Amino acid sequence: MKGIGLLLTSAALLLTAFQSVARQKKQLDTQRELCTALERMAAELGEHSLPLPELMDELSSDASTLLRPFFASLILSLQSLDEQSFSASWRQAVDRQLSLSAADKTTLYRLGSYLGRYSGQMQSDVVLSVRSELLRELQRREVSASDKRRVTAALSAAAISMLLILNL
User: Fold this and answer.
1) Which of 65, 107, 131, 151 is an S-S bond match for 38, by CB 3.0 to 4.6 Å?
2) What pTM, to 2 d.p., does this model score?
3) What is the DSSP letter of 119?
């Protein structure tokens, strides 16, 4: 009976560690792809001054599975602007559809209040500014990601070892 408890506890520890690493990877992937999408958004706004519905449609059609729900949500919100402002819809889409840290979400909120309200070049400048902030944070996180994975693995191994020692 002791062995089954040890096995279940060890499995739970490993599952928690794997989930933590997977969540971190998803956040990094989302942030990386979002930076790419923001670069394209800035180019489209600056060069072609695309209207938001067309821009969101283009970004949605080219987006990965991580970002497609975000842009699809924005497309739907643009169809009901009389019920809610675009900046509020943007904020909700960021909260509900993007797997990002709270700090990254806060950075993105700022962008929603500019899109569709100012000249194409001003919108493009703000998009590039937000992108550069997200990119700096992404680079910082990528450097520390491998360290976090090692620490997670070491702590999991240590906890399992302690359980084995205590059950001998």
Assistant:
1) 131
2) 0.80
3) -
